[in-house]
Fold this sequence. Notes:
mainly alpha; Na+/H+ antiporter like fold; globular
Amino acid sequence: MTQAVEQAIDSIQVTLNAGGMNTINIVLAFVMFGVALGIKPRMFVEVFANPKSVILGVVCQLVILPLFTFLLTLVLGPSISWSMALGMILVASCPGGNISNFMSSLSKANIELSVSLTAISTALAVLMTPFNFWQYGNLYLKLANIAGEVPALKIPLWDVFKTIFILLGIPLTLGILTSHYLPKLAEKLKKPFQYASILFFLVMVVLSFVGNMEAFLKCIKYIFLVVLLHNFLALAIGFSVGSIFKVPYKDRRTLTIETGIQNSGLGLVLLLGTQIFSNLPPHGGMLVITAWWGVWHIISGLAVSVVFNRRELKLVKNA
């Protein structure tokens, strides 16, 4: 990557006032409430009766993906800037995406497992997202020998914890309670909230690039290749781990989708809606990687879902 392209990427920035930040945070909280409307306590009982796939899914999302992402950033070396590498690590540190349940449904995968993994990874993200990003972000900056160019990555873990708890923990709890005590209302609200969540993310992406279109177009081919490779790695981790441990094929599909679809909306909120990364120099690479990941994983998720769906139809036809 040339220095001119790297500067173009890092020059991309979005500035929001306090009102804009609060709006983004509130909308994401509503999105997570919508995700939780499809979660019923009995699902956990059914899935945990055979916990192997759940444990593998959690390990894929919260342990293997962040680790392998960190290794990938080292392998890519000077092909990516430090801010792009941190963007990849941020995405990998986020929990499963809120459209993964929809993709699992299209894939004829294990829906109960998908919903359970989304709920568990989202709940654990309160601790694991700041920890994984802090751990692998600092390790990358140290091993990539660019400590002189970038200040030490001082992530205020308590501030991140509070932010994620408010954005994810509280809405998730309220959504599950609504699903349990007001099931008819939850069923009516579920689909509108699902569509609204996709619209919300697209608005955030437009917001990110509308004032930076020239710089974005200059670097899109680099961003596209990096996100393509990173997302393929995530999908491959889910399917490979499921295959190695010989879980049912429906569960392998779920592990693939859940690991390959990340809640990059949370990553964007942390970048745009907080002051957490204000100590870093211009870091447009983090913003671009996170935003494009959210667009791309919808495309790749739909493609994988079609492949899985057709395979299921073939299996049923040949049975």
